[in-house]
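WARN  no MSA supplied for this record, continuing single-sequence
INFO  ligand: flavin-adenine dinucleotide
INFO  echoing inputs
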Amino acid sequence: MTDHIETDVVIIGAGPVGLFAVFELGLLDIKCHLIDILPKAGGQCAELYPEKPIYDIPGFPMVTGQGLVDNLMAQIEPFHPTFHFNEMVESIETLGTPEAPLFRVRTAENGTTFTCKSVIIAAGGGSFQPKKPPIDNIEAYEGTGVFYAVRKMEMFRDKKVLIVGGGDSALDWTVNLQPIARRLTLLHRRDAFRAAPHTVEKMRALVAAGEMDLHLGQVSALKGEPPVLEGAVIRKDDGSEFTVDCDVMLPFFGLTMKLGPIAEWGLNLHENLIPVDTEKFETNVPGIFAIGDINTYPGKLKLILSGFHEGALAAQKVHRYVYPEKKLLFQYTTSSTSLQKKLGVA
Ligand code: FAD
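INFO  complex generated
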């Protein structure tokens, strides 16, 4: 089913910078929807270093990656942004004029379209995408027999499931899918796992009880007439091979950041970054802004605090597109009753 949504602004990327932009836009009565390919908010902070301490967020002597994301989510709560997770923005079409911009934004997964007056690209280093195992012809089974994420567990009910990997995703999905799968097999290169110890223990208990299988080795080939997967050939360390029957294979080899479709949006690019001015953080297309790690300008520092500043200035220009007839008054949150009402504290 495809949906159509009308809003003031679409923010591409729900990393820390996209999240704080919601706050700055919200103070100016600008509504937004955020789209992220990940299943959760927080970008690099939540995906790459949730438990690591950050020491250079103004006002926080120390906060973890996830702690910062949690605080940002609490801070933007009064503005009720709508999140669209597990969706990658595929295209931006220009419908309006440079004076009165209007855009149609489309996502790849279920083709949701958005009409909006401005687009803020807060896409960091690009979209997080799954690392694929080096198996011949694996693409032919993608979406039918090979999946890199679990969007709906029910899809795997009564299936013969092969999970490949030794990290948290592989182990979490092993213990979660085992009860509904017809038979579940976990495959890893060696008998040591990087996942949380209690999840590894659960998996080992299931193996000991004969309720799932664990094999060591690597997938060397897939079997079955594409796109129907019937089995995976496993090569062991000693070079011997055997086949595991499976209807679906879920490789969890981690994520990598790729620029993705941004290159096709008609924007000027410089070494895979989007050049912007430092007054409004607008791109070469009026109405499309780029903030955070994805942009470039003289003196750019890829720091979270830079992205916060960029979002605040971009919001000022967005206001002119969304409310061309309204004059913007500069106000402090400390002393403005009108801002405090928006924040629900007055
Ligand atoms: P990101 O956090 O990269 O978020 C961008 C989001 O956009 C991602 O979730 C991505 O999936 C999504 N996206 C991209 N393209 C699309 C698309 N087409 N469709 C849908 N979604 C899309 N910075 C500091 O200031 N202090 C530190 O101490 C610090 N420590 C760090 C430690 C590590 C290990 C790392 C890796 C980085 C660190 N950084 C630090 C850098 C900081 O994390 C980044 O500057 C920050 O995350 C940038 O935020 P962002 O919102 O611009 O992008």
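Residues 4-128+256-342 form a domain with the FAD/NAD(P)-binding domain fold (CATH 3.50.50.60).
INFO  checksum written, moving to next record
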